[in-house]
Amino acid sequence: MSTRSIATPLPARWFRTTPDSSSLTRPRLLARSLIDVARLDDNIRGYEQLTGVTGDLRMPIPDFGGLELAAVDTMLLIASARPFTSIQRETAYSVIVPSLTAELDRLRTTGTEVLEPPETILPGSRARVRYPDGSIAELVEHRPQADEKARPPVPATADRTARLLLRKAVSRAAFDDTVALYETLLDTAVADHARPEGRYDVQLARIGELLIVGTDGPEYTETGAVRLAVLTSAPRDLPGAQPLAYSAAQATSRHHVVRLHDGWRAEIWDPAVFVSARTVGT
């Protein structure tokens, strides 16, 4: 969807390292954290410390419900002084797309339903959709404002040891179909595929910023609501993370769950499970 820049001065604190998303080679998937605006600065710092990555956008949008958005790695922080609407709370993903029109045309062939049609907003344009599995996503096309210049990106820290991913847990029976669906929805092929050794039959597939976990084991299905994953070989070194329901000794194992600095729970995986089980051609 082509949009004209809204003729208005940009708010203070506004910056984007990529004001024009048409340069993206594939959709960028982001987790969504809805927070009070008073917590925004602390949460930005927390995710920067966790991931070793500096935030790449901050967008106050005073005319759109008084929102202020900030992205750090794969986390989109959505801050407001007002209560969030039910549809905002139900939306699982934000997806920055190269072209909103082209993305909607592509998704129609998958059975995706448009819940909110395209509209022009300060960052560019947006629409809200429901994927075939019931997950709701907000699609956003970024376009630069008049005289807006990209802020140069800050390289990740040299000692970065953690990678933040979105997590989707499904039954083993649904795993293959879910992987195929999200390869299509995200226009991205599986990058890593693993089958870690353990008591239960677990399969992992990473599609861009999404980790799909397939198993029927209770150790995993009981954490089905956990929506983040962290790949790290040094779980004890995660800033602000507290192990949940695991002993201190198990905090060095290849899999456990932690509470992050802001209360979100995340499943921890050692990247070695992918190295040891990577499938040729995936």
Verbal overview:
It is built from 6 helices and 17 strands. The strands form 2 sheets. It has a 9-stranded mixed β-sheet with strand order 1-3-4-5-2-6-9-8-7. The protein has an 8-stranded mixed β-sheet with strand order 11-12-13-10-14-17-16-15. The protein has 2 domains: 15-142, Roll (2,3-Dihydroxybiphenyl 1,2-Dioxygenase, domain 1), CATH 3.10.180; 162-277, 2,3-Dihydroxybiphenyl 1,2-Dioxygenase, domain 1 (Roll). By secondary structure, the chain is an alpha+beta fold. Helix content is 18%, strand content 34%. A hairpin with a 5-residue loop joins strand 16 and strand 17 (265-269).
How does the helix and strand content classify structurally? alpha+beta
Through-space gap between termini = 32 Å
Topology as a string of helices (H) and strands (E): EEHEEEHEHEEEEHEEEHEEEEH
Return the CATH topology of the largest domain: 2,3-Dihydroxybiphenyl 1,2-Dioxygenase, domain 1
What value does the Rg take, in angstroms?
A: 19 Å
Low-pLDDT residue intervals, each spanning 5 or more residues: 246-252
Summed up, the domain count is 2
Q: How many DSSP helices?
A: 6
Helix content: 10-25%
Please report the total strand number as a whole number.
17
Strand arrangement, largest sheet?
1-3-4-5-2-6-9-8-7
CATH class identity of the largest domain:
Alpha Beta
CATH superfamily annotation of the largest domain: 2,3-Dihydroxybiphenyl 1,2-Dioxygenase, domain 1
Biggest sheet descriptor:
9 strands, mixed
CATH architecture of the largest domain: Roll
Principal-axes shape call: globular
Round the mean pLDDT to the nearest integer and report it.
88
Strand content: 25-35%
